[in-house]
């Protein structure tokens, strides 16, 4: 009896901690908004989650060892140990970079705990709703920031500086009424756009509150003016459309169509309202900045010099163009009020975008050369360009550190999940809709991470672990047939 009570407490408390942890990921960016001494709330919640889930993991150990995705995670960890040895002992890579790499991937330790916690459809729906509403809170915070920036500029600077110091948000000025608002958790806005659609389709009921969340989050995504987030959103929408149109029955497809139209209407109402109130066109700059990515190479020839003929020097020394850009332009966001004063119109911001792309191109070329040094095994964790320790291109950097084997092992849980879901019977359409709902968001995260390394940090890895847990339950739990 005591054993049952202990397991019941651990199960309930672990679920509570997981909800708090994922809500924190959806809102708090780097997790430094709430600090208890030197320890962040996120680290505390994560540590408690691991401890309280130990009895659950032990009790379900045999079950865990029969889950292909979990086995793939174990193989990935084994490979990371090999790469630590290569990086630390053989290649003598910088230890502080190596420690940073290990810290990011260590969040995969949560995978067995999450599989044991998210073991029923009710629990999955609870975590989905928590994340959906938390993502909506972030969307509201983005709109409050916009209002504050436009109409209360005198008191905005302390908020701006606090956001930077807490690694919660960053802002650069495009025009007096058009900021570029980026939150560390901005990619989680996708959750608030996708999960409401799922709940309405499986229940075949329309809820106005859900459309409000979608409209606010879509507008907040627009305000990031970040092409990698736009790419992630595009991938998510594409996967979602294909999944729902293929697997949903006719009645649910009609509901899906209504939801899409209502979501777009909500987005247009929110966006048009701010366009009229601020007398600013928020659409056109998003389109222009996105199109710049296709024209940067031709437009920025005057910004770069010819490539060095000595390829061996590229890994250790930046090209002339990259050094100029590195000193003149912040490649992602402006990080000081002085920089904001320099970018006061769209033309200067477009120029900054082009210069940023020159630097990115130089980084990618040097990482490819680094991969060529050891394409299969990699150069070990901690490997980095000597002139730049941390890079945007996650998959190139992952290959440079862990080789093709490491990249394949990292992607293995996701690929195995897709294969297992597709093997499910046709009548389990709700199974597949749930699974592909999570997959669409995960692929959006992964597309975003091509330019921004989120999938080797808490924000990306914890969502990946949740995805593994949800897929396993959706496949194994027969209750989903009668959802």
Averaged pLDDT, please?
83
Instruction: Give the low-pLDDT segments.
Output: 294-344, 478-483
Give the spatial strand order of the biggest sheet. Answer: 1-2
Element string (H = helix, E = strand)? HEEHHHHHHHHEEHHHHHHHHHHH
Structural class: mainly alpha
Please outline the major beta sheet.
2 strands, antiparallel
**What's the tally of helices?**
20
Specify Rg, calculated over alpha carbons.
23 Å
Global morphology? globular
Number of strands: 4
Query: Proportion of β residues?
Result: under 5%
The portion of residues assigned to helices is over 70%
Distance between the termini: 31 Å
Write up this protein.
By secondary structure, the chain is mainly alpha-helical. It has helices at 2-27, 41-52, 54-59, 61-64, 68-90, 95-105, 111-117, 121-151, 156-165, 189-203, 208-224, 227-247, 250-278, 282-299, 320-328, 337-342, 346-373, 394-422, 429-448, 458-476; strands at 35-36, 39-40, 169-175, 178-183. The strands form two sheets. Strands 1-2 form a two-stranded antiparallel sheet. Strands 3-4 form a two-stranded antiparallel ribbon. A hairpin with a 2-residue loop joins strand 3 and strand 4. Helix 5 (68-90) runs antiparallel to helix 18 and helix 18 packs parallel to helix 20 (458-476). The longest helix has 31 residues, at 121-151. The radius of gyration is 23 Å and the shape is globular. It starts with a helix and ends in a 7-residue tail after the last helix. The relative contact order is 0.13. Mean pLDDT is 83; it is low at 294-344 and 478-483.
